[in-house]
Amino acid sequence: MRKMKKRVIKLTIILVLVFMLMPFLAVLAIADPVEGPTIIQVDIYRHCLETDDMLVVVQYFVWYTDVVADLPDETINQSFLGRLMNGGEITNVAPHSFYLKGYQYGIFSMYLSAAEAVGLWEDPLIVEFNGNPLLTWPGAPPTTSTAVLNWHSTTTAQATEILLSNDIVSIANQLSNHWGIALTDSVAGGTVLSSYGEQYFTNAIPNLHTMSPDIFSGAVEAFVYEPEVYEQSGRDRLIARIDGSPPGLALVGLATWLTIPLVVVKGVIWLIVIGLIGYFIGLATKKMGIALFSILVMIPCGTYIGMLSLTFTLVFALLCIIALAFAVFYQRSSG
C-alpha cells in the first residue's frame, strides 16, 4: 500500500509538471492574410444614444479563403483588433465573428459616450486595424490605418437615426452580395434587417436596436448604455518588468535568434533556473519537501520579475490545489 501511495504521488507530480509546460508549448500561430487587412470606409456619427456622443463604424476587408476548412483556427475577434487613435489609443474593439469566421468583408464599431468624446469631434483621429500582437505571425502583425473619416454632423438625434438607419441598410445590402446571405427583408414599411442581419449587426454595433429601431422587425424598449471596460495593465506591467534592461535585451536577442516567442524563452529559462535551485537545495538539505517548497515560491517570483506570464502562474496554482486536494483525500480514503 505504501508503494502504491508513492507511485500515485509521483504520478501526480509528473502530471503537474506536464501541465506547467503546456502554456509554453501551445503557442498560437497564424498565417498572414492573402489580402488585407484593408479599411474600406469609416463613418462617424453623433447624438446616437445621447447628445454629443460618437459612434465610429468601420468597414473592413481581410481575405484568406472562402473554404471554411482552410481558414485560420482563430476567428477574427481573436486575430484582429480595431483601434481609435489620437496620438495614443482612445479605445479598441475586436470585430464580431460571423460569416467565414469574420474574415472577408465585415464591419466593427467603437462607441464613445458624451463624456469620453469631449473635444474629439472632427479632430484628426486615426483608425487602425491590426493583427493581434499576442499571436505568432510569420513577421510583424499585419496592420493598416486611415485618417480619412466621414464625419456626419447631424444636429439632432432624429436626424442621426434616419441617417444611420439608411447607412446600415446600405451596408447590409452590400454584405448580402458579398456573402450570399440575405441580411435585409422588404416589408410594407420599407427595408429592415433579416434575422441574420439582426444577429450580425446587433453584435457588430452594440445598442443598434436603440439607435435605429426602425430597421428592426419588432419594437424594443430603450435601456441605459453602460459600456464595459476591461483592464489588463497590471498583467502587462508584470510581463514587461525587465524589458529594456540588459537582461531583458539579452532575452529579446535570444528569442529573435531562436525565432521563438519571447514569453516562451523567458519561461523555459526560469523553469531551468528554479529546477537547478530546487535540485541543489535538495542536495544540501537532504529533504525533498524543502526543495519542492523553494520551487513553489520561485513560481510567483518569476511572475513578479516578468519571467513567467500571469496566466501560467494562475494555472499552476490551480493545478497545485487540485493535486493537494487529491493527495489529502486519497490518504484519508485509504486510511
Q: How would you describe this protein?
A:
The protein is of the alpha+beta class and 335 residues long. It has two domains: 2-27 and 238-334, no CATH class; 35-215. The protein is built from ten helices and ten strands. The chain has helices at residues 2-25, 76-79, 157-179, 195-204, 208-211, 233-239, 246-258, 262-285, 288-304, 310-334, and strands at residues 35-46, 54-63, 80-86, 88-93, 104-112, 126-131, 143-146, 150-151, 184-187, 190-193. The strands form three sheets. A four-stranded mixed β-sheet has the order 5-2-1-8, with helices on one face. The chain has a four-stranded antiparallel β-sheet with strand order 4-3-6-7. Strands 9-10 form a two-stranded antiparallel sheet. A hairpin with a 7-residue loop joins strand 1 (35-46) and strand 2 (54-63). Helix 7 (246-258) crosses helix 8. The longest helix has 25 residues, at 310-334.
